[in-house]
Every structure is written in C-alpha cells, then in structure tokens.
C-alpha cells in the first residue's frame, strides 16, 4: 500500500516539477497564476492583453523554494537598462495570491541554489544602470531575498 501511495505522489508531482525552471507562455500557468502574471504588465500596457503589442511576448518561470514556488514574469523591453524586465512574485500567500516582491531589468536572470537557504539567489547579468554623469554602465549583480527585502551579494 505504501508503495502505491508513494508512486501516486511522485506521478502527481511530476507535472509540477516539469514546469519548474522552464520559461513558458502565460497560457500554460497554473490556477490563478496567469491572471497574476498578466497584472504585472497592466501598468505599462493596460489591462486588456488582447490589445498588447505582439513584441512583448511575456513568459513565466516557476522557481522552487523550500516549500513552494516563486513565479517570475519576463518580457522584452526597449530600454537601456537591459533586454528584459523581470517581475518576481512571491510564494502563495495565506490569501491564496502572490505579492509582487521585485521588478528588475537585465539581459538575463539565472537561479542559483544557496545552501542553507529556502530561496535561491538570482544572478542578474547584462543589466545596466546610469552613473552620476548619466552614462549607462553594465552592472551585474547577485540578489538574495532575506528578511522581506532584496540584498545584493558582494563577491570577495
């Protein structure tokens, strides 16, 4: 009996695991995640996805944490800060929703597992920030969510 229950648990978990760490269209998101992902684009493009320009082609990524998954929404941008904007949505809250906890601009986002932490770090690369003279400079950074805020991890 135990073997049957274990097998069923693994079979039911496989579709969820297959969605983790793979960029996918918003159409393929689970439950209410599609609506939440679309909301990250409302401020710039309005609340009707049918009227959004074709070039934004948003995608999403599930990122495993210790006991749940984050949701990251990626869309291309035509801005000097980087090639993509990444909106990070929290794990599911007690209200059965997700909070937006980050909005980053970069060329790429990599997920880095961190020993002793439930949540991974994010490596943002090929991003750019303006210096004091207004010149855009490349600025790669590694970020960690801790104590309700993002911390930049400095390398030795």
Describe the structure.
It is a single chain. The chain is of the alpha+beta class and 156 residues long. It has one domain. It is built from 2 helices and 11 strands. A hairpin with a 4-residue loop joins strand 2 and strand 3. Mean pLDDT is 88; it is low at 1-16.
- Describe the sheet with the most strands: 5 strands, antiparallel
Taken in chain order, the helices and strands follow as: HEHEEEEEEEEEE
How many structural units, i.e. domains? 1
Q: What's the end-to-end separation, in Å?
A: 52 Å
User: How many β-strands, per DSSP?
Assistant: 11
Helix content class: 10-25%
Spans where pLDDT lies below 50 across 5 or more residues: 1-16
Round the mean pLDDT to the nearest integer and report it. 88
Which geometry do the CA atoms define?
globular
Tell me the strand percentage band: 35-45%
Determine Rg (CA atoms, Å): 17 Å
Q: Helix tally? A: 2
Side by side, the strands of the main sheet go 1-2-3-4-5
Structural class: alpha+beta
Concise synopsis of the structure shown:
By secondary structure, the protein is an alpha+beta fold.
Which features does this protein show?
156 residues, alpha+beta
List the helices and strands and how they pair.
Elements: H1 2-19, E1 24-25, H2 33-45, E2 59-64, E3 69-79, E4 82-89, E5 100-106, E6 108-112, E7 121-125, E8 128-130, E9 136-138, E10 141-146, E11 149-153
């Amino acid at each position: 009996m135990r073997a049957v229950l274990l097998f069923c648990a693994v079979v039911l978990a496989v579709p969820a695991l297959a969605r983790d760490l793979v960029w996918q269209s918003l159409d393929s998101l689970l439950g209410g995640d599609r609506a939440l992902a679309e909301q990250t684009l409302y401020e710039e493009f309005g609340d009707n996805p049918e009227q959004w320009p074709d070039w934004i082609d948003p995608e999403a990524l599930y990122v495993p944490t210790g006991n749940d998954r984050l949701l990251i929404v990626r869309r291309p941008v035509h801005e000097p800060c980087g090639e993509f904007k990444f909106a990070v949505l929290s794990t599911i809250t007690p209200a059965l929703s997700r909070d937006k906890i980050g909005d980053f601009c970069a060329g790429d986002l990599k997920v880095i597992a961190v020993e002793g932490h439930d949540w991974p770090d994010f490596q943002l690369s090929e991003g750019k920030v303006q210096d004091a003279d207004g010149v855009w400079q490349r600025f790669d950074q590694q970020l960690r969510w801790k104590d309700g805020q993002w911390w930049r991890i400095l390398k030795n």
